[in-house]
Amino acid sequence: MNDGVRTSGGAPVPSQMWGRQVAAILRLELRRSFLGKRAVPIYLLAAAPVVLFAARAALPFRLEGEGLGQTSLIYAVFFQSFMLRMVIFFGCVGIFTALFRGEIQDRTLHYYFLAPARREVLVAGKYLAGLTMSSLLFAGASVLCYLLLCVPKGWGVVSEHLLRGPGLAQLAAYAGVATLACVGYGAVFLALGLFFRNVVVSSVGIAGWETINFLLPPLLKKVSVIHYLVSLCPVPVSEGPFALLAQPTPAALAVPGLLVVTGLLLWIAAWRLRRIEILYSSG
Amino acid sequence: MSEREIVFENVSKFYGEILGVNRVCLSLLPGVTSLVGPNGSGKSTLMNLMTGLLRPTRGRIRVLGMSPREPDLFRKLGYCAQYDSFPPGLTGYRFVHSYLRVHGYEGDAASSLAWQALERLNMTREAGRRIGSYSKGMRQRIKLAQAISHQPSVLVLDEPLNGLDPMGRAEVLSLLQELGRQGLHVILSSHILHEVDALSERVVILDSGTLVAEGAIHEVRREIRARPMQVLIRCSKPELLASKVFEQDHVVEVKMHADRGGLLVSTRDADRFYLLLNRIVIEQGIGIESVAPADEDVHALYQYLVGSGGETA
After folding, report:
1. Does A280 reach chain B within 8 Å, measured CB to CB?
2. Mind listing the pLDDT tens digit for each residue in A64-104?
3. Which of B53, B88, B151 sits opposite A2 (nearest CB)?
4. Cα B290 to chain centroid, rounded
5. Of B221, B240, B264, which closes a domain?
6. Mean pLDDT, chain B, as a whole number?
7. B73 vs A36: CB contact, 8 Å cut-off?
8. What's the domain count of chain B?
9. Most CB contacts within 10 A, which of A63, A78, B67, B112?
10. Which runs of consecutive H residues, i.e. helices, occur in A196-223?
11. What's the domain count of chain A?
12. Which of B54, B113, B152 is nearest residue A277 as measured by Cβ atoms?
């Protein structure tokens, strides 16, 4: 029998094979998870702020004396309090916990386990699928919201702000922070989906920790994702009178730090996946 | 240990305090092997252990010399599991093709293998439809197509005939027979004993997680000494033959056929009986139409060893 016709030109080296398998898992996951009914609440979540800002742009209501500086501040508050802490956080809960937990519920995980793919490769493929989807949706929604907030000022002012002012840099920074949020939260919730049958309780726990981050002493602040994300936001926002202040982590540390933590979480997820048995009846 | 065998060395599996299988030692050679036993006897557990979906609590499993935890084993192993579930939204073709890509095949190779598998299972016409719209029989076929698509040398099939209509069963049985002849390991469980009987060279009988018997069907039958072997003979002069064989101490019962054209002999020693039969036939000039063991099949073994009517699941 065929012992594995891998390529037309002979057997590939392992890294090539892993790359090919990651790409295959990515394609399959994008097709099965994100074109299905399960993705509808995620789309609605991502669309909610866009609809809100579209409505605001369509309505004649404006804050008194609202200039572009004021608009930037409004957006910064919206991005940090609503986009990061609500939309992206819960969007990532929905997307990344379902990557494995959804397959266990659907009783389809065994198809992957019966393929000659290392579990690390499976984690990587699924994570990249989740990351592709979440980044496109949430970084896209962040950019759209920013533009919709600027639109009522008129095209001339907006283009001036974007091309000659700080607009474009801010826009890129927000898109980058939204993507990094997906990177960090994605790894957290992918791992969580492998450890807990009911991810609601643990997700709410993490949401609570992230929410009270501003009240935490500086050392504990660093044991969170939101601290690094907020540090990277281009417009600082006051965290209120009760906040315990801490120096924002410089981007040169925040970005690699987040990536290292992400790598560690994915390694833990792969370790867990290697120990998982298929026992669908007990979840 | 041969690299052609599937070997269980003192394998036990517990689900918490519940026994899955207990101290199973067996060695399977290429060919068709049937796992039979009642509900909860451990058939699926054994299959899941063999395919690495479960890990043994104790003992060791080797499949073609490899551990079921080694990813490379799955280039050689295909498993059609009992779960009637599929990734949502995929067509039959996309389902088979996508997992071939996960195996590492490039697009063209995956496409060609997918179509070959679909053709073997007679699913080419339905390949473009979503699996969600398939009948139970079609879902079973597409699972089988996926399991054989990478052309494995070990094929493990948990209830592969479930949901298939009689025509479908015949086609699948013929395919499995052909794969067995080609030297593959085909290991299947089925509750339709007379169908797996026609197919199997060997049987593994399980009851309550324990291995009751294992081996070639006729060898297992001979080991069951408490039950005399039954031999069916169609011949001329059956009364004369009956009187001659009944004189022997190892022959415990002789029943004449209603049409007086043959007899059913029960003997405690089949080897001596066949020698005796040759001698009587020659000496008495009896014309033999056929001689066949009447209870050397999976169904009879199951009844003798496990003791129900043979409807397992």
Report:
1. yes
2. 556 777 888 889 999 999 999 999 999 999 999 999 998 99
3. B151
4. 26
5. B221
6. 88
7. no
8. 2
9. A78
10. 199-211, 218-221
11. 1
12. B54
